[in-house]
Design goal:
CATH architecture of the largest domain: Alpha-Beta Complex
Radius of gyration: 20 Å
CATH topology of the largest domain: Spore Coat Polysaccharide Biosynthesis Protein SpsA, Chain A
Order of helices and strands: EHEHEHEEEEEHEHHEHHHHHHH
Number of helices: 13
Helix content: 40-55%
Shape: globular
Largest sheet: 10 strands, mixed
């Protein structure tokens, strides 16, 4: 019996980081596990690295597919996985697998959530000690913070995923993790929290710029799509929570839009082309006037700069933002 399937999508990850990641998963102890290496159309060196691990370890399995993005790679992994539980690992990250205790699997929860390390800092998902988590608490946290917007650092019962037909949305070029999590939570899983840091995220400020370079203006369309998808989940909350989440959603919409406009300007995309997309943002924001009045001052300033197409100030802020992110 296979306890855990580790699904690792790979696309041209730097060789040293890929090797570091694959070696880290070998610290998983006292559990039977398989490692599914999904090569998403990478250069030839990726296959060479993967096949070396496959030749050394019988539980490593290698699959190649034409490039289709991380969602399609993970979906292939879901189809091929045989473990009772699934964990998604990004190929440039580190898994502190020795902290995953087999005993917790006997409790048979649908989702197990751990703490994570980002930029050497421990990021706690929930306050408190090891325990079961109420569904409403998890759903509200997912919609009002970034603590549950990724799939890494979590174990998902494969049977639960399959029975609820949960897969990654291939139409999204960003935010695919978040909507996978919302699909998981909206089906009311049994959730167990363990305050152990099992996952280390290798944050790189250049990653979002590279993604923006690849998808260009489609990123702005994707932000709007993300917002519209999020709205359908808000309606399942009680009215008091719904108001808070609606406000947070508009804040997130503006802040994310601002971030990607900064990336587009750094990449020297045409301001005329960017300007054509901004009308979609203004329609969504100004269609929520009562909510707009409650926005943070930072969000209001960002929105006004975007609405007025103040490219000079936006370019200046883009440079300051990049410098700040590089220093943090």
């Amino acid at each position: 019996m296979c306890n855990i399937s580790l699904i690792i999508p790979i696309y041209n990850t730097p060789k040293s980081k890929l090797i570091r990641c694959l070696e880290s998963v070998m610290s998983l102890q006292n559990l039977s596990f398989e490692v599914l290496l999904i090569n998403d159309g990478s250069d030839s060196y990726i296959e060479e690295v993967c096949l070396k691990f496959v030749s050394r370890f019988k539980n490593f399995k290698y699959m190649y597919k034409p490039n289709g993005g991380v969602s399609s790679a993970r979906n292939l992994g879901l189809k091929k996985a045989r473990g009772s539980y699934i964990m998604f690992v990004d190929s440039d990250d580190i898994l502190h697998a020795e902290k995953i205790d087999k005993k917790i699997l006997k409790n048979n929860p649908d989702t197990i959530i751990y703490d994570n390390i980002v930029n050497t800092q421990i990021k706690k998902t929930f306050c408190g000690n090891e325990d079961y988590v109420e569904h409403d608490e998890a759903m509200e946290l997912a919609l009002t913070s970034n603590k549950l917007n990724t799939v890494w650092g979590k174990l998902f019962k494969r049977k639960y995923i399959l029975e609820n037909n949960i897969i990654f949305n291939r139409n999204l070029v960003s935010g695919e993790d978040f909507y996978f999590m919302l699909d998981v939570l909206s089906n009311k899983p049994i959730i167990y929290y363990i305050p152990e840091t099992v996952y280390e995220y290798d944050y790189n400020v250049e990653t979002s710029i590279i993604r923006t370079s690849k998808y260009g203006l489609k990123m702005l369309d994707n932000i709007v799509l993300n917002y519209m998808l999020k709205k359908k989940y808000i309606t399942i909350l009680n009215k008091e929570v719904e108001k808070r989440v609606a406000l947070q959603s508009i804040n997130d919409l503006i802040n994310t839009y601002f971030s990607y406009i900064c990336n587009l300007l750094l990449l020297k995309f045409s301001t005329d082309e960017i300007a054509l997309k901004i009308n979609e943002l203004t329609q969504l924001v100004e269609g929520n006037q009562s909510t707009f009045a409650l926005l943070s001052n930072k969000s209001k300033i960002k929105y006004v700069l975007i609405k007025k197409r103040n490219w000079r100030k936006l370019k200046f802020l883009a440079l300051i933002r990049k410098l700040h992110l590089n220093l943090t």
